[in-house]
Design goal:
single chain; mainly beta; Immunoglobulin-like; six-stranded antiparallel beta sheet; four-stranded antiparallel beta sheet; 2 helices; 10 strands; 14% helix; globular; Ig_E-set; lipid transport
Length: 156
């Protein structure tokens, strides 16, 4: 009887594993909900999902703009349980094709989380500025690094 149940359970378990997404969309908030940003963000996708420490994770940000953007920078701030722990700045043109034409575009940023990254709740804030230092958008989203040594979970 146990062998029959095992034979039924294994295919069911493997089928469920195939349904687990390899990427995860996450909730995005604007830094200032009353601001009229020039760049509108429609979503963020984190891949792979779950994030694995020591391996590249890609944050793909879907956005749109009413005017072309010739260049600028992205400022990324990371907080751990509400405490600012890291900031980095990237040239916009290394994260997407420039010039950015009016319409939809994607910013894709890959990051390797060190193997010693502690588990817990993180918040990533991304500000985009044009070449004249005019803020085009500012978003934030949360994700969690799990307590299991090699996995992380995005808050949805």
């Amino acid at each position: 009887m146990a062998i029959v149940l095992f034979k039924l359970f294994v295919p069911l378990f493997l089928s469920l594993c195939l349904l687990v997404p390899l990427s995860q969309a996450t909730k995005v908030d604007y830094c200032n909900k009353k601001a009229e940003y020039d760049v509108k963000v429609s979503g963020v996708e984190i891949s792979p999902y779950p994030v694995v420490r020591g391996k590249p994770a890609t944050f793909s940000i879907s956005a749109s703009t009413g005017e072309a953007i010739s260049g600028g920078k992205l400022v990324i701030d990371v907080s751990y349980f509400g405490i600012h722990i890291h900031e980095e700045t990237h040239d916009l043109c290394t994260e997407t094709d420039c010039p950015v034409s009016a319409g939809d575009f994607v910013i894709s940023h890959s990051q390797v989380l060190p193997g010693f990254t502690p588990p817990g709740s993180y918040t990533l804030e991304m500000r985009m500025e044009d070449a004249n230092k005019h803020q085009l958008t500012c978003i934030s989203f949360g994700f969690s690094i799990g307590f299991i040594a090699s996995e992380a979970v995005a808050d949805v």
